[in-house]
User: Which sequence fits this backbone?
């Protein structure tokens, strides 16, 4: 059984999926990195929670004055350090501070320290985010909706957000309620999606064994289920996968 965990993925490839190349059809023009770049000024001190291997952050966040990147998985942070050395000059390397940290727990920074806090596909302790943001500071995040890959998850009877699909309260609703209580203003929640078409079974399995979409992949039981899904969702463009995400922008 291949049980998903960030440590193995970090060792093997980091949070980088260049090895697969699904055709993507977008139905929204929302782009997380575009939103973050718009919020960055030359004076910005920012925090990236759950930075992963940081490929895109290192590429796009460099206009900020200082960027703190935290992740709970040390192997991811090793990759960020290597990527920094590969891609950035000494000056820019200094701007990116890479630290072990738990975004769900206490954030080890003083009150009102950051102008901008961001998080992509990683939860955050919102009361701590509120505390470390300056007045007028902004939080931007993108996360996986419980309806992401819902048809696929129905075939397997499990996966990310499965409890919610079966009748719970969506996490995004809880987060909005909590953010209102905390005192955030200008709360913008955006639901969006896109369709991916995988060119073959190997690429789809690559995704499913290296992400939390299904939690785990059982080589005995799950190959047959995947075959059924592929038989039903194969199209001229490839094997169809319906992706659903949501994004927040909040102001303290
Ligand atoms: C889905 S990856 C996203 C990485 C990156 N934000 C991106 O979009 O490319 C989630 C990352 O969050 C990290 N993570 C998971 N739980 C965390 C926590 N409680 N605190 C900090 N990082 C966490 C994982 O180790 C992983 O690197």
Assistant:
């Amino acid at each position: 059984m291949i049980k998903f965990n960030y440590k193995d993925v970090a060792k093997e490839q980091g949070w980088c999926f260049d090895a697969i190349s699904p055709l993507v059809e977008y139905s929204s023009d929302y782009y997380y990195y575009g939103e973050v770049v718009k919020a960055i000024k030359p004076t910005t001190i920012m925090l990236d929670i759950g930075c992963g291997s940081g490929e895109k952050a290192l590429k796009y966040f460099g206009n900020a004055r200082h960027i703190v990147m935290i992740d709970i998985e040390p192997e991811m942070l090793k990759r960020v350090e290597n990527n920094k050395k590969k891609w950035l000059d000494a000056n820019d390397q200094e701007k990116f501070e890479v630290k072990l940290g738990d975004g769900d727990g206490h954030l080890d920074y003083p009150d009102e320290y950051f102008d901008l806090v961001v998080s992509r596909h990683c939860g955050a302790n919102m009361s701590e985010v509120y505390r470390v943001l300056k007045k007028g500071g902004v939080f931007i995040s993108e996360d996986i909706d419980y309806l992401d890959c819902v048809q696929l998850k129905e075939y397997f009877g499990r996966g990310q957000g499965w409890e919610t699909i079966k009748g719970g309260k969506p996490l995004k609703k809880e987060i909005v309620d909590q953010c209102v209580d905390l005192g955030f203003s200008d709360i913008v929640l955006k639901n969006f999606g896109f369709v991916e078409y995988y060119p073959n079974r190997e690429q789809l399995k690559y995704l499913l064994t290296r992400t939390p979409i299904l939690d785990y992949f059982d080589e005995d039981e799950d190959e047959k289920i995947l075959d059924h899904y592929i038989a039903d969702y194969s199209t001229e463009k490839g094997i169809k996968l319906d992706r659903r995400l949501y994004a927040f922008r909040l102001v303290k």
Remarks:
- The first helix runs from residue 6 to 12.
- Residues 6, 15, 49-52, 70-73, 76, 101-104, 120-122 surround S-adenosylmethionine (CB under 6 Å).
- The radius of gyration is 19 Å.
